[in-house]
Design goal:
By secondary structure, this protein is an all-alpha fold. The protein has one domain. It has a two-stranded antiparallel sheet. About 40% of the residues are buried.
């Protein structure tokens, strides 16, 4: 019950103080994203409740992926904990959005890719992965920037099976083919596909608000990431091959999430939701493999105190001031 309690602590203010006019930014939503998000965009309370449950579910999926492969070298609930605190620390992240929904298919894509590791025979995992990523793009266009991660994974996992290099491309274009068929059957121009995909590169101009406490909170998370990264660099040579390769994959997934935000600053949501996967595993690895000493216990204590402070500040505005970026 600890994980639902942490999520409830972060989401409680949102449940009771949702603005009547709040709606997701649909300017970068694909046809599936508009269809799924439109039904709840005018119901912010329902949107927030669904988002809370979905983030809990995503964290659970991260725990299950590690549980089946043990690349953290131990079973732990920490991936779920860190994913919740990364994805739930900001008010505007706590509503159902196309970026959040697209993340589900990216997580499934990751699971399918990892299942291909050390498979001796020809597999269709990357065909499936391409399909899932394409569905993510049809929900939220900036997900297209994560296509290179399929090729990086192929190089890391399957670089001796040349036939599989065609599978991500085939899988990626299959859902697009269905979309094109739908446009053709409904007498809509096929060039609409290219015009809408350009939205992935066009900023909506939307600014995101941060309180001083939230900035300090994510600044502390950034400090933990730096500490965890140095720990990873120092110990990566002692990990088994599978763990080493998986963390290299997560590194590139995080890099692509940053590139996505650099190309389109309005895609900050997908950067946090998908980049947060890599960070959740990095921090989980650090706290599950480092020594259980006073310093690391203090880091966790400050993390928990930060979660409480973010929640309290939203109710009582302890530190006034809002910053928009």
């Amino acid at each position: 019950m600890l994980m639902p309690a942490i999520a409830l602590l972060l989401w409680l203010y949102t449940f009771f103080n949702s603005p009547v006019s709040f709606s997701s930014d649909l300017s970068m939503a694909g046809p599936l994203g508009r269809l799924l998000a439109f039904s709840v965009s005018a119901k912010p309370v329902i949107s927030s409740v669904l988002a809370c449950g979905i983030i809990l579910l995503y964290g659970y999926f991260l725990v299950q992926i590690n549980g089946s492969l043990l690349f953290l070298q131990t079973r732990s609930q920490m991936p779920q904990f860190f994913y919740i605190v990364i994805a739930g620390g900001l008010f505007w992240l706590r509503y159902l959005s196309p970026a959040m929904m697209a993340t589900l298919f990216v997580i499934i894509m990751i699971a399918r890719i990892f299942q291909s590791f050390k498979k001796d025979k020809l597999t269709y995992h990357f065909l499936d992965a391409g399909i899932f990523l394409s569905i993510a793009v049809l929900i939220y266009y900036p997900a297209v920037f994560f296509f290179p991660v399929l090729l990086i994974a192929l190089f890391l996992f399957r670089n001796t099976v040349w036939q599989e290099w065609f599978y991500p491309w085939i899988g990626f274009f299959l859902p697009a083919l269905f979309w094109g068929s739908y446009l053709f059957l409904t007498d809509q121009p096929l060039n609409l596909i290219g015009e809408e995909l350009r939205n992935a590169f066009v900023s909506s101009g939307r600014a995101y608000d941060f309180s001083a406490v939230q900035l300090a909170y994510y600044g502390y998370l950034a400090l933990l990431v730096v500490i965890g990264s140095f720990h990873m660099i120092r110990t990566i040579g002692m990990q088994n091959i599978q763990s080493r390769v998986f963390f290299i994959f997560f590194f590139w997934l995080f890099v692509l999430s940053l590139i996505t935000m650099i190309i389109n600053a309005s895609a900050a949501q997908v950067t946090i939701y998908i980049g947060g996967i890599s960070l959740a595993y990095l921090l989980s690895y650090y706290f599950s493999s480092c020594k259980n000493n006073r310093f690391n216990n203090l880091l966790l204590f400050i993390m928990i105190a930060g979660i409480i402070l973010v929640a309290v500040d939203e109710w009582f505005n302890i530190v006034p001031g809002t910053y928009s970026f």
